[in-house]
Design brief:
alpha/beta, Rossmann fold, 6-stranded mixed beta sheet, 10 helices, about 40% helix, about 25% strand, globular
Amino acid sequence: MLETINLTIRFGGHVAVDHVSCRFEPGTLTAIVGPNGAGKTTYFNLISGQLPASEGRVRLAGEDITTLPAPLRTRRGLGRAFQLTQLFPNLTVLENVRLAVQAREQGRSAAGLDLFKVWLDRKAWIDEAADLLRRVQLADKTQLHAAALPHGDQRKLEVALLMALDPKVYMFDEPTAGMSVDDVPVVLDLIRALKARRDRTILLVEHKMDVVRELSDRIVVLHNGQLVADGDPAAVIASPVVQQAYLGVVPEEAAA
């Protein structure tokens, strides 16, 4: 479904992502881990089109999307949730999600203008948006402005926006960062439900190793912009390179 081929970006003399080649299959959840500064978010930015690659290619469902801007990648089915929330702050919670549903449906339809159909569609969009907000436990906050929500609720709203787009590939960049203990299970349950469908590709950048162990089918490890490990979660977590680079564990032989 998604593939990066020798994907690279340089900032002056610094190589932030260094020739990373990786394939992500439908129906799988891949956790991308590594220490701070390893290049995880930059790799996400290259895939989703927020940054232009210095070298390499990105392919989505067999199509080369390397030169496409981020909005066109979204239309092709690439959905991204950010470390910092990306919302319409001065619109209501319901309108934020309704616009995402509308954008998805209008992107799929090439029909001419029919005012009666537009009215019916708008009702359907609102109903779907309300259902998504119920699923993220924001049903009681539909008429609040997005800017008025606490941080945890803004994160939940962004997940609702992403689900409204119904992408082929879901990209979650630390989705529970800064959330309260009570809010975290809501987002994790939504990711579990998406994974259970087995018809979407999910990429997850996450620092909480208990979450990584539970959710991932596979772990990819980046360190200094390079892919240093890739495989079964138990094997990757136990590998010396991950123990040292990510978990800070010094091998006994090195300590001696």
